[in-house]
Amino acid sequence: MIETKEVIIEKTNTWEEGKAKNITFIVTEDCQLQCKYCYLVGKNNLHKMDFETARKSIDYLLQDCNYFSETSVILDFIGGEPFIEIDLIDKICDYFKIRAYETDHPSFNSYRFSFSTNGLLYNDPKVQKFIAKNAAHLSIQITIDGTKEKHNLQRVYPGGKGSYDQVVKNVPLWISQFPNASTKVTIAREDLPFVKDSVIHLWNLGIKEVNINVVFEDVWEPGDDALFEEQLVLLADEIIENKYYENFTCSFFSTQIGLPYKENMNWCGAGKMLAIDHEGNFFPCNRFVNYSLQNREQLLIGDNQKGINQNRLRPFLTLDMFTQSSPECVSCEVATGCAWCQGANYDYADSSTIFQRATYLCLMHKARVRANNYFWNKLEKKLQKTLRTLP
Amino acid sequence: MVLKYLLVLLSDSSASFCYYPSQKAEIPKGIAVANSHKKDNAFHISDEKPTEIYYNEKQHLISLDHLKKTVVFALKNNLKVNFLYPHFLLDEAYTKVIEEVEHIKIIPFDAKIFNEDAILIIDSKDFPTTLDLENYTHQNFILKLQKKDLKKLDTMILALLAKSARINLVLMDVENYEEKEYAIYEKQLEKITRNLIQYQNQNAIPELNFLTDRIDLNQMNNCQAGIQHLTIAPNGKMYLCPAFYYENPSEDLGEIKNEIFIKNSRLLELNYAPICRICDAYQCKRCVYLNKKLTLEINTPSSQQCITSHIERDASRRILEKLQKMHPDFNPQITIPQLNYRDPFEIVKGNPQKIATLNHP
Question: How close A322 gets to chain B, by Cα (Å)?
Answer without folding.
Answer: 7
